[in-house]
Amino acid sequence: MPTYRIAPSILSADFARLGEEVRNVVRDGADMIHFDVMDNHYVPNLTIGPLVLEAIRPHVQVPIDVHLMVRPVDRIIPDFAKAGANIITFHPEASDHVDRSLQLIRDHGCKAGLVFNPATPLHYLDYVMDKIDIILIMSVNPGFGGQSFIPEALKKIAEARQRIDASGREIMLEVDGGIKIDNIAAAAKAGADTFVAGSAIFGKPDYKAVIDDMRIQLASV
């Protein structure tokens, strides 16, 4: 049975209580913290940077998964690594040299990965699987929280799973966007093992109840 990981996205957390929020969600069963970085350039929104990561890093011991929705990426990768990221992913369209950006992340001691928008083909993986630790499939168009899951993403998750299995490598397969109790099992059946959930968790008063219900759904796969 796969190891399933639930990664709440702090994009939907209460930013006035961010340290408390990440402590509480980890206490209630989260495996990772998903940290969304938007630049109002690559995506039409502006969020948080390395200083916020540095501030919350002492509050949790679980891995922090930094998703860069920025262009360009190379300049800011070292800043997030220094601030305490464990995983850094970026969109291949946002890098002039995908292989170099992946290696830069690894050179700074973090796991590296690529993120695929709903309409982005997976062929960027063809020549860099040896530098990939995680693949993130977007099941919404990036830029805003609270969007609805795009069902076509299930096909892309399945295709990414085939690529991972064929590579023989230990690569996480993450899905982000509209993940809720009622669709997390479908994403797992398609091959995902890591699930980003923002409003589905932080939008509810009882984080533990939501995470527990998600695990019940995953256990049924």
TrEMBL record:
Its cofactor is a divalent metal cation; Zn(2+); Fe(2+); Co(2+). A divalent metal cation binds at residues 34, 36, 67, 176. Belongs to the ribulose-phosphate 3-epimerase family. Keywords: Calvin cycle, Carbohydrate metabolism, Cobalt, Isomerase, Manganese, Metal-binding, Zinc. It catalyses: D-ribulose 5-phosphate = D-xylulose 5-phosphate. GO terms for molecular function: D-ribulose-phosphate 3-epimerase activity; metal ion binding. One of its GO terms (cellular component) is cytoplasm. InterPro entries: Aldolase_TIM, Ribul_P_3_epim, Ribul_P_3_epim-like, RibuloseP-bd_barrel. Substrate binds at residues 9, 67, 143-146, 176-178, 198-199. This is Ribulose-phosphate 3-epimerase. The active site is at 36 (proton acceptor), 176 (proton donor). Coiled coil: none annotated. Pathway: Carbohydrate degradation. It comes from the Bacteria. Pfam families: Ribul_P_3_epim. The gene is rpe. It comes from Collimonas fungivorans. Binds 1 divalent metal cation per subunit. Its EC number is 5.1.3.1. GO terms for biological process: pentose catabolic process; pentose-phosphate shunt; reductive pentose-phosphate cycle. Catalyzes the reversible epimerization of D-ribulose 5-phosphate to D-xylulose 5-phosphate.
